[in-house]
Amino acid sequence: MARSRTSTLPAEGQLTIAGFLDNLARKAEVRDPLRPATRLFLVVLALSGLGLLLQISHAATTRSVAGFADEVRSQVTFRLIGIAVMLIAFRIGPAGLRRFVPHLLVAGFLLLVAVFVEPFAAMRNGAHRWVEIGGLSFQPSELVRIALVLWVADRCVRLGHRVHDIRRGVMPMLALSIALFLLVLIETDLGGSMLLLICALSTMWVGGARLLPVGTALVTIGGGAIVAAGAFVPYMRDRLAMWIGNVHNDQVAHTIDALASGHLFGAGFVQGAFRNDGVPHLESDYVLALVGEELGLIGMWLVVALFCAFLWFSLRLVLSLRGRFEALASFGLLVSVGLQAMVHAQVVSGLAPPKGMTLPFLSDGGTSLIVSSLAVGLALGAARSNHKELFPCNPSNATE
Question: What is the distance of C-alpha 310 from the center of its chain?
């Protein structure tokens, strides 16, 4: 009998995937969301500081003395602006922007149209992804992604149990998400459009929308877009051919070489040679390869560890929020940053087709840095709002 009983214990104690996720959620949740928010802020500061060092290293051997000084000033300025944006968003929080979300979406839609309209259009490398206003150029799709996530979160909360209804709940959200997805797609930005769609659908699903229509929309629209782009868009067809190995590309091949050349400890800070050996965009679209070249496997482990910490503290923050809108909005905003980092790592390591996508807080690029800072800052602001509800300050009691 004892033997029989012992043999059944493993089966009785077996942990299912659902049980594992439930245990993980219980371990991640804390009473005060400001605790993981503080740690998340420190992780972002560490990533931004490492990014500044990488940009200084890259500029040291690719620019003149005057150009190097200008680049350092530019990098310091943008990173300080990013921190300032994060702190301002921390004060505002998602709730502070909630009533302006429809206006933000309309403005985003107009900006997505403006990328094709002179004198605002700023075409680069054959792609219409930028608008230029008053000498300042930026990618509207980055800002639209934040506005769409906030709108989906607000819509899910306002619908309540009706979010399960396909016609009144899911379809309007899907329609707007698909419309914005198509506007970004025709800029010839497949990666940016897919990131926008995945963030919107993920927020929709976590907000209570049924999995089947959401999953079907993602597979049908996303898969169809990839197939159509590969068949009819020349540059996407070429990139898919590079990925599967049918076409050789020096940039892709040398990027992999740069990634692998650092071995365990790397060539050393400012010692990378591939940037001056015909490998462009190592400071932006392929910055992880620069990490591998100069800091080696140790440096890449550090970057991966920082982003794993980013995801862990993001999970703890979201699960600890009491307000449904704040939790949904923070989830979508932080997922957008995490997914962007994942896509960048996949592209650099050859696990995904070549795609111009920056690594948040490390790559060169003002729009990406500021928008990522805005997304994180809004999530931190949700934690601040919940903290104030949990621990209200009563000056009258304090003086008694």
Answer: 11
Does pLDDT of 2 surpass 60? no
Q: For 293-325, how does the pLDDT look when each residue is reduced to its tens digit (9 = 90+)?
A: 999 999 999 999 999 999 999 999 999 998 999
Quote the Cα angle for 31-33-36, to 5°.
115
Tell me the CB-side half-sphere exposure of residue 169, using CA atoms within 13 A.
22
Q: What is the rounded distance in angstroms from the CA atom of residue 353 to the CA atom of residue 240?
A: 6
pTM above 0.90, yes or no: no
In DSSP terms, 137 is beta-bridged to 132
Residues in the chain: 400
Cis amide leading into 10 (omega within 30): no
The candidate with the shortest Cα–Cα distance to 362, out of 274, 244, 295, 283, is 283
Half-sphere exposure of 221 (CA within 13 A, CB side): 23
Phi-psi region of 362 (alpha: psi -120 to 50; beta: other; left: phi over 0): alpha
Q: How is the chain split into domains, by residue range?
A: 43-386
pLDDT digits (tens, 9 = 90+) for 112-152: 999 888 888 777 766 778 888 877 788 899 999 999 999 99
